[in-house]
Amino acid sequence: MVVTGASSGIGAATARAFAARGDTVVAVARREERLKALVEGVAATSPDSGYLAGDLGERGFAERIIHDTVARHGRIDVLVNNAAIPVRKILYEISVEDIEHAFRVNFFSAVWATLAAIPPMLEAGGGTIVNVSSFASKVVPTHETVYAASKCALNGFSEGLWNDLHGSGIHVALVHPGPIDTEIWSKGDAPVGYDGVKHPPETVADAILDAVDRRLHEIVVPRRNPTLGFARLLRLIAPGLVRFGTRRMDPVPEAAIERARARARRGQPLGEDSE
Questions:
Q1: C-alpha closest to that of 114 among 137, 133, 102, 131
Q2: What is the model's pLDDT at position 275?
Q3: How many CA atoms lie within 13 Å of 56's alpha carbon, on the beta-carbon side?
Q4: For the whole prediction, is pTM greater than 0.85?
Q5: Could you tell me the CA-to-CA distances from 134 to 5, 137, 138, 143 in Å, in that order?
Q6: What DSSP string describes 69-133?
């Protein structure tokens, strides 16, 4: 099986969870030192596990992780598309290049890897693809517009695959983590508005294993969480109230709007802050 974004957080926890039960894992991410340490740490229960280090924002590498896995192990049973980068920025400071890069990593890497994995899975008679989205795609926070959009694209891709792959033996699961305690919170330029409880990444790893074993289609993690459930319900029945609450919890600073207005008067596009 292949797990992307495996150098930390949800990806690392998922790789360790599969390896702990004896599955052979190919861990994928950019940080080779961390991948090496991960593989060494699971050697006792999963001696054939390995890693591939590279940039999943490049199509050639995203496809190669599948081809190399099949060449080395003869098949690929499970693909977990977990790699993602945050884009927590004030909208007026986001460039087109920021958006393109986020979509390459957060969405297109999953598309490239999935389309490469489908032929060997078809040949083998089946397999499972798990796409790790985000609860931010259900209720979008301030400053997370681009990140949420990339995850919404992943949602649509996954839901379409439910129908397109029906009868093929290939199952697709969609996992929506809520507030999980990973290093993603320390990344991004805008401050984090959320200050509530963060759950361990192992919570998501357990859900991913469950989705694979029971062939579940969609899971929000933590499961049976009243706060997340209420937020989704409120989004459906009172979307204006959700927008108001989100803006109040994490407002856009007036100074940022004025800086953007000044740049606009100088004829500068979004994301450009030169005088």
A1: 131
A2: 47
A3: 31
A4: yes
A5: 14, 6, 8, 15
A6: HHHHHS---EEEE---------GGG--HHHHHHHHIIIIIHHHHHHHHHHHHHHHHT-EEEEEE-
Q: Rounded to 5 degrees, what angle do the CA atoms 267, 269, 270 make?
A: 140
- Which sign, positive or negative, has the C-alpha torsion 166, 139, 188, 11? negative
Catalytic residues: 147
Residue corresponding to tokens 């979307």: 239
β pairing state of 170-177 and 218-221:
parallel
pLDDT digits (tens, 9 = 90+) for 40-83: 999 999 999 999 999 999 999 999 999 999 999 999 999 999 99
Tokens 């969405």 locate to 107
- Residue 268 has what DSSP assignment? P
Tell me the one-letter amino acid at 179.
Answer: P
C-alpha 5/C-alpha 52 separation (Å) is 11
On the CB side of 126, CA atoms within 13 Å amount to 8
> Counting beta carbons within 10 angstroms of the beta carbon of residue 152, is it exposed (0 to 12), middle (13 to 18) or buried (19 or more)?
middle
Q: Domain extents for the chain? A: 2-225
Question: What are the Cα distances from residue 166, in Å, to 145, 162, 163, 205, 219?
Answer: 32, 6, 5, 25, 19
Q: Which of 3.30.70.1170, 3.40.50.720, 3.30.1490.100, 3.40.640.10 is the CATH number of 2-225?
A: 3.40.50.720
